[in-house]
């Protein structure tokens, strides 16, 4: 099963679970499977049409899925998927 | 909420802010939430990967972020916050800080000038997406990952 690492800011939606295992063939299925398990997380990750939100960055291993095949990127049994929040700020 | 640091960890962040001046520094804060507050166990400087004016903005590369999450999992700690500096500006969150902030994290801000650290504050979002200041407590005896 693929393992999804939940970033700490989103763990309140996963009963404080840091990693979740899902059965899926690609990234899209993985995120949908995760959303089905934790409905409160769903609106953080998916828009009203069920697409992964633009600002949600997803990595497969060390690779941004944008440089792979986006949501259609296949995942293997031992895949590690990370959801990454944007971290930024500053004076102005 | 209290956020509890050792003096040593505080010095790591101060040194980073001074060395990075006049640019903004940034880094990760690891700890555990306990009765009495958020106890900080380790801080790790990160790279300000902002393309553009690093004197006014910071950004952490997603890959560096996910490595910090993996580090936390491997060491049984939690990534509980982010620190950054405000060169020649007060340690008050900006509109940009607020816009970019995510829930749960403590955002520690170091106001730094060329000569010294002027002030340090810490903030966390409330349920209305507004920053609420945390009380920074310094303790000398905190178990760290390195000892």
User: By CATH's scheme, which homologous superfamily of chain B applies?
Assistant: Cytidine Deaminase, domain 2
Number of strands of chain B: 8
The shape of chain A is: globular
Chain pair forming the biggest interface: A-B, 22 and 37 residues
- Oligomer state equals heterodimer
Helical proportion of chain A, percent range: 10-25%
- Give the CATH topology of chain B: Cytidine Deaminase, domain 2
In CATH, the architecture of chain B is 3-Layer(aba) Sandwich
Return the structural class of chain A: alpha+beta
Count of distinct structural domains of chain B: 1
Q: What would you note in describing this structure?
A:
The complex is a heterodimer of chains A (92) and B (147). Chain A has one domain (2-84): Ubiquitin-like (UB roll) (Roll). Chain A contains two helices and six strands; from the N terminus they run ββααββββ. Chain A has helices spanning 27-37, 39-45, and strands at 2-5, 19-22, 57-60, 63-64, 80-84, 87-89. Chain A has a five-stranded mixed beta sheet, with helices on one face. In chain A, strand 3 (57-60) and strand 4 form a beta hairpin. In chain A, helix 1 (27-37) packs across helix 2 (39-45). Chain B has one domain (2-138): Cytidine Deaminase, domain 2 (3-Layer(aba) Sandwich). Chain B is 22% helix and 41% strand. Chain B contains three helices and eight strands. Chain B has helices at 7-20, 62-74, 95-100; strands at residues 2-5, 26-34, 37-46, 58-60, 78-87, 106-112, 117-125, 131-138. Chain B has a seven-stranded mixed beta barrel with strand order 1-3-2-5-6-7-8. In chain B, strand 6 and strand 7 (117-125) form a beta hairpin. The chains are: A alpha+beta (92), B alpha/beta (147). Chain A binds chain B through residues 5, 7-9, 11-12, 18-19, 57, 59, 62, 64, 82, 84-92, and chain B through 24, 26, 50, 55-60, 62-63, 65-66, 69-70, 72-73, 78-80, 82, 84, 86-87, 89, 93-97, 100-105, 107.
